[in-house]
Amino acid sequence: MSRYSLTPHPDHPPLGVRGVTVDLRMIDGGAMLLNYVVDGAETAVWPERTSAVRSDGLWRTTCFELFLMFDDEEHYVEFNFSPSSAWAAYAFDGYRDGMAELSRDLVPHVTRIRQGVEVDCDLGGLPHGELLMSLTAVIEEEGGRRSFWALAHPPGAPDFHHRDCFTARLPAPAQP
């Protein structure tokens, strides 16, 4: 298991949230288990539970994200996981270009836990090999204030799609 600590964007500091950590564990066959934990979760706004459906715009409130970039450092995928259990998955040809929905066969299982979410996500349909990775979160707090958390931030406005955010490596999954 690997643990990652996210940092808030300096121009959008949180009110009461003190930190966001992500525990990642790879499971045989290309699946991963992610635990996003919010320190100070009592000040966060948690979306109401819904059915586990694909939904756009999840980042407008508390949402947890995973970005994976392929060897060519152009193509990447984005996963959004809402505490409501809604999710989204997109593929991009390049930086914010050529966005398309990933296969509807891919359905991550998102479970709200006391201070965040647990996500079981099958990555078996993605290319094999080591991938560049970015872990991010948008945390809405009381009063509508949002903070933007990432492993690293590029200069300027929050931009989770920027290459500078991809600072971790996801090892190639073990093959059965």
From TrEMBL:
<protein>
    <submittedName>
        <fullName>DOMON-like domain-containing protein</fullName>
    </submittedName>
</protein>
